[in-house]
Amino acid sequence: MNARSILMLQPTEQQQHATLPYETSAAAIFIAARIHDLAFRKSQAGIAAEAGFPNANMMTFLKNGRNKIPLDRVPSLAKALEIDPAYLMRLALD
User: How large is the average pLDDT for residues 85-91?
Assistant: First the structure.
C-alpha cells in the first residue's frame, strides 16, 4: 500500500463528525459525567437495562454523542441515572 492509499483510508474531519454528531451536546457531556459518578454502584449495562434499552451499547452511544436521547426513554433513563426527569428532558430537547 502506498502513502496515497493510506490517506484515502483515513476518515476526513467531516466524516468523523458525522459519526458523532452530538459529541459536544450538553446531554452527551452530562450523561458521560453522570455515568462516571455512578460507576462505583452501577455498570453501564445496568443503567441501560434499568432505562429499558435492549442493548447496553446505547449508553456508550449516548455518552459519546453518537445518538440523541430518545424522548420516550427520558423518564426511565432519568430514574436510572438518579436525576430529575425534567432536567434530562430539557437536555434531550436541546
Answer: 97
Q: Residue 72 belongs to a domain with what CATH number?
A: 1.10.260.40
Q: How many domains does the chain have?
A: 1
Domain membership flag for residue 11: no
pLDDT at 89: 97
Whether the pLDDT of residue 30 is over 70: the answer is yes
Look at residues 20, 2, 23 and name the one whose alpha carbon lies nearest to residue 11.
Answer: 20
User: Could you give the CA distance from residue 39 to residue 47 in angstroms, rounded to a whole number?
Assistant: 10
Q: How far apart, in whole angstroms, are the C-alpha atoms of residue 30 and residue 27? A: 5
- What is the model's pLDDT at position 50? 96
Burial of 88 per CB tally in 10 Å (0-12, 13-18, 19+):
buried
